[in-house]
Amino acid sequence: MKYLYRDLTLYNLPELSEMTGLGRMQTPEAVILRGLERFGGAFLARINGDFALAVSDPSNGEILVARDPLGIRPLYYTRSESGVIFGGSIGELLARTEAEKVPDLRSMVSLLKRGSVACGDTLYRGIRRVPPAHLLRIGADGETLTRYWFPERIAIDYSLNLSRASERFVGLLERAVARRIGGEAETAFELSGGLDSSSLYALALKRFSGRRFSAYTLSYGSWACDESGYVRAFEAAIPCDVRRIAVDRLDFSGAYSLESNYRLNPHWPPITTATMYLPLAERLHAEGRRIVLTGQGGDQLLGGSCHLLGDLLRRGRWRALFWELYTFLDGPIRFSFRCFRDAVPSVGKGGAFMPRRAGRERETILPLGGEAGGLLGHRMRMLLSDLEMTVRDGAPFHALEAAYGFRFRHPFYDRELVEYLLTLPPESLYSRGWTKLPLRYGLEGILPDPIRSRRDKAEFSALIRRELEAEAERSGGFPCPELQRLGLLERPRIHEMERAFIQKDDRELLLLWRAVNLESWYRFHFIQKENSVF
User: pTM (2 decimals)?
Assistant: First the structure.
């Protein structure tokens, strides 16, 4: 076997080396080739790391293509006259193939209406994504896509109490952080003041008490999303080195305009604002950082869900159900009677609680290959749904890594940590309106109390609004002529969004944001011809 494409970072390399019989001192490339030869695709499920690879197998003429279980490293492919081409970005494929660049209107509609693109698709016809946790075999007879990781088979251990769950969870998280840290001078932490990023930085400073890692935080001044107070609480409690970047002073009509974003990350219109990462990347690069640890994944893995109620009903936990239901009716998490659907047999068949609507479009839950309800369905959606994978693949991280030469690492997406979290009863993650319980309990005495006990989250509509205002000044409003011409948006609908924006009604803000960015993406690639090749 030989590599056609590889992007590998393995965090359990010694264990994998021993498993394959190569000994402990081996390269990731050698270990993966030997593992595939000895164990086939099942070997991929034993890897704890971020990887995307394409390998040719001369014994049968096949090409094996695989992506890590959580989809951290992107992997794209397309066919050309010279064969199948692989790359870590869409731009690589467009630069290396003679294929014509054509927009995929179906994906554009999906992105505009639902904020997501089907997991194997992109916004370009003929350019495909390899789904996470999948192995793609390409041979003379065509393509075969199979899954190698099955998180939905992990059983919940209802004997675990919060104390035991928190202790084990924090131990795994600390190890995930330690595996992803490099040298003191090359490693940085993203610090927002939220529970997730603060926990990672606190655990690193605790475990490596002799090393003074730096953290970078974004300051929004008087904007509502500013979290400087929590960052100051962290500094007051723990000796650290925090470096601030003022985002509220950025020039959104010039260096940090939407158009400038597309020169850096041109092939995925941002689902939510990414401007904040540009000055962060510039500062990290200027100060020689090579590794950046982020809190990405904490919300998806540790957040609450009303499916807790259905799980308590199914188990006959009546007292707990009463108190949780009381909290949900006046709490921060959206409640729906659908959470009881799988707990009551008649409901699962379209009974009184939640009748099914014929023809309703449902989001694909990638690992299950179709629809799933209840707690299991919720957990899979948080991990690997179309929406999650659109956000993950379209995130600015990948473009910033390529442009500035560093790597983002995400300890919450550690495979072993994720598998452990899936064993926890839902009430060990969320209860009585409190989310992320393993972090709150497990980091008592480590994380400052103002952060450990905070229940709010930063909300970035002010930043999105500021960027849209700058775009409106530049283009004279939000006409979206190309989306109108393509039949994706009607002019009266655009007027409704504009009117809501002017009246500072944010209910339409994200839809307007998607429309403006999709319009910008289309014009950037297919109208401004001088910008159409990357």
Answer: 0.89
